[in-house]
Design brief:
globular, 18% strand, alpha/beta, 9 helices, binds SN-glycerol-1-phosphate, metal-binding
Length: 233
């Protein structure tokens, strides 16, 4: 599964309601993949339910793991966040260690893709949950990106602004310091214009909330990203 070429991804929250009609539009939108993940109330039941509904379409579907209890088989890939700016080692490597200790013999390492998260919105649920240190200046963020690429050799560095639109200048700067590691950007993309702006710098743009608040705008982000040139290729 060539996630390295993905430019646009929709993130669906298994704890949120979506109609069949809207789901079909999302899955047939031309997006590169559907990422299933959320911070709150993610259960095996709602993950399986959403997966079964998305599975009717041909779009690749990835589970972004938030709890070991909600891991279900059958996804194309599994993205595993490690929150680089968390103050609690549990979110950096603790839960991962626990899961590997339990299930290490069964794991298919080829389908597990680690993501180095840098959470930049102090008010988002993920920041509170993981006790993220979000008081970062640009140099701090660049250092996390370099840590991800050169030290931990992570395939993905994810600038997570979930719920608010981030700083395109900083995304541009971070991109300038990454070569092998892919830069994911997520947060506050609720129009074609914002999608286009972030897609100029980020390798992959993640669109979440607007799916639930304005489906028309959500669909427009796909084409907006497709019109931009992937600078990483
Ligand atoms: C959330 O990065 C994604 O994890 C997308 O953010 O929901 O703000 O679009 P939004």
């Amino acid at each position: 599964m060539e996630y390295q070429s993905w430019r646009h991804v929709f993130k669906l929250d298994p704890a949120k309601e979506i109609t069949d009609g809207h789901l079909e539009r999302i899955c047939k939108s031309g997006t590169d993949a559907i990422l299933i993940g959320g911070s709150d109330d993610v259960t095996l039941e709602n993950v399986l339910d959403l997966m079964a509904r998305v599975d009717r379409f041909t779009v690749p579907v990835v589970l972004e793991i938030s709890t070991v209890e909600s891991v279900a088989p059958g996804f194309d890939l599994y993205f595993i966040p490690t929150v680089l700016n968390s103050r609690d080692p549990k979110w950096i490597k603790g839960l991962h260690h626990e899961a590997i200790r339990e299930y290490g013999d069964l794991m298919d390492w080829e389908e597990l893709i680690p993501e180095g998260y840098c959470i930049l919105n102090p008010d988002c649920k993920a920041a509170r949950l993981t006790d993220a240190d979000t008081l970062l200046n640009d140099d701090d963020v660049v250092a996390y990106a370099r840590l991800a690429e050169h030290f931990f050799k992570l395939p993905i560095f994810y600038m997570e602004y979930s719920g608010i639109y981030g700083n395109p200048e900083l995304v541009k700067e971070v991109k300038g310091h990454l070569s092998g590691t892919r830069l994911f950007y997520g947060g506050g993309i609720d129009s074609a214009e914002k999608a286009r702006e972030m897609a100029k710098f980020a390798d992959t743009v993640v669109v979440g909330n607007v799916i639930y608040s304005d489906i028309e705008q959500a669909i427009r982000t796909v084409e907006a990203v497709a019109e931009t040139v992937d600078q990483s290729l």
